[in-house]
Fold this sequence. Notes:
167 residues, 25% strand
Amino acid sequence: GVVGVISAAGLLLSATSVQAALSPAVDGMVYDDVLDLCWLQDASASGTLIWDQAVAWADNLVFGGHDDWRLAQMSNTSPTPSITVCDGNNEVACRTSGNELGYMFWHNLPGPFPKTGNLGPFTNIPTTAIWSGTEQITIFAWGLIPGNGSQGNTVKAAPLNGWAVRP
């Protein structure tokens, strides 16, 4: 009776909102069922590299028997890359914009900022900015600062960590 109606109403309400679910870490990898990506558990596995080196590191990474790794993206790449800056207010825009790093920090990781160190199933989230695989222009690429969630362009010659993902 009433319990069945309440349960059905709750099911309908929960089906209309997306709730990210990160799998527990398995063999150093964490699956995000909303973005349909597998993330390296160790967010600093690349070490600090300039952007070109970070891109090459991810492209050449063989981990967990997979060789299709890349740096997490922050935008679509059509014709002039631009980012939808993610925040906690618009999950749909963040999810559909291609801003994988922004989505990770604003919608997947628990707690307030700074989102650094060991958090959720992840380890070694750096205090410095993290490279994305999205180039802005010749000397800049997009990055994210885990300390406050800021997203923007960074000079490619800066030594930062890259966070690898795979489909």
